[in-house]
Please model this.
Amino acid sequence: MLIFVKLKYINMATQTDIHKRVHSIATQLESGRTNSEIIKDCTEQWGISSCTVERYMALAKKILFQKMEGESINNEAKQLIEIIKKSGLQMRNPELKQVLNGFQKSAI
Model:
């Protein structure tokens, strides 16, 4: 005897959905929204648990930290380039001049 059971369809987020959600949360964090505001809005909008939103928020914070870290390194590198230019070192060393020119193009 066969028994058929009707399974309830569970709406699982795709990787693309998760990516969009995490970046949406990152944008909201950058704009100064509080964690509780974000959790409330996301649970309502996406129909997910607050625990899931907190996991997304942890990923969003990691992205923001990496972004800030990259901007900091880039700013430090630009300052170093200016110091080298002012000192005239790149004029005496063609290899250094070539490296600096390449970095400036990639940093822009």
